[in-house]
Write a structure and sequence with these properties.
With about 210 residues, this protein is of the alpha+beta class. The protein folds into two domains: about 80 residues, no CATH class; about 110 residues, TATA-Binding Protein (2-Layer Sandwich). Helix content is about 40%, strand content about 20%. The chain is built from six helices and nine strands, in the order ααββββαβααββββα. The strands form two sheets. The protein has a five-stranded antiparallel beta sheet with strand order 5-9-8-7-6. The protein has a four-stranded antiparallel beta sheet with strand order 1-2-3-4, with helices on one face. It is globular and about 55 Å long. The two termini are about 30 Å apart.
Amino acid sequence: MARIDDYKAAKMLAGEKLAGIPFDDIIGPAGFESIGKDRFRVPFLDGLYLGRYPDFSFQNGSDPEKEVPLQEQVLILHYLEGCAHRQPTTGKWIAYREIPGASFYFAAFVKRAVDPLKKVFGQDIDRFTLAVDRLGGGKPIEPGDAGVEFTVFPHIPIQLILYAGDDEFPPEANILFDQSIGSLLSPEDVAWLAGMVVYRLMALAH
């Protein structure tokens, strides 16, 4: 399939670039924990992956028999690349549209992340809260009828905000990112990342 081939090519390209950089110069800036001189831990949502340098193979830390999705491997590698020139986390939150170059991917971002968030949780805030509790690691925030901040990777916080629907108004949702996100990931990667968070919450809501 073309999409799988695209991911394989993206992983190979990113892995080749990173393989030419010393191990400590990659893992340190990313905020990942190193294991010896050729392995590292990658916390991702409610899971843990183990990565190996320099071939950048990945293993599920809790279930070695379970394959790490190729798309997530690519995101990890792109994050490692981005950390080499990232801007410091600012604490200023921006919408997806404000990420440089994001306008082309905005429709995909809404389809992958915002719309599912509204559809599944907009009329059931308690269900959202349950999923957040099950995922763990979320920090409650003030905006909206329900809001949470997750740290997806060490330098990538993300906020999910829900406004409950009623008889008069439909539900609304917003997903915000630190202003530094554009220095770490491409707009396409950010859209996929947000979708992964939302879909993980959806899976935990059942």
